[in-house]
Sequence to fold (131 residues):
Amino acid sequence: MESENKNKDEKSIDEEYLMSIMAGNTKKEPQNQELDSSKEKPTNKQKLKNKKSLEITYAEQFLTHHTMTKRGDKSIYVRPEYHERLSRIIQIVADDQIPLYAYLDNILAYHFETFEKEITDDFNSKYRPIF
Fold:
């Protein structure tokens, strides 16, 4: 009995749910989300963001917005395996309708929106004015 509970805790990724998301089906709620929500109680702002994200599919959130009009003049480096994954997601899920730089821009915009308060708090706690 105890070993079964350990296996459930260790297997925190619902692979079937992830595959259904990649296939465009988001009707099934992940089982682990219920466990995580019982462990951590998010603030009201995070609850609103989670509700927004549940209403919007992954493709609608990240693979349809073209916020950037051109690639820009900065280069970034990512691991080759991440580049391959990102490229495959764009090719298959987005039907090559969005460039890689726009997809990454959408991912970063979502990250900064989601973790804005935590980033600001950490930054302010470590930032000390010179005078």
Notes: The mean pLDDT is 74.
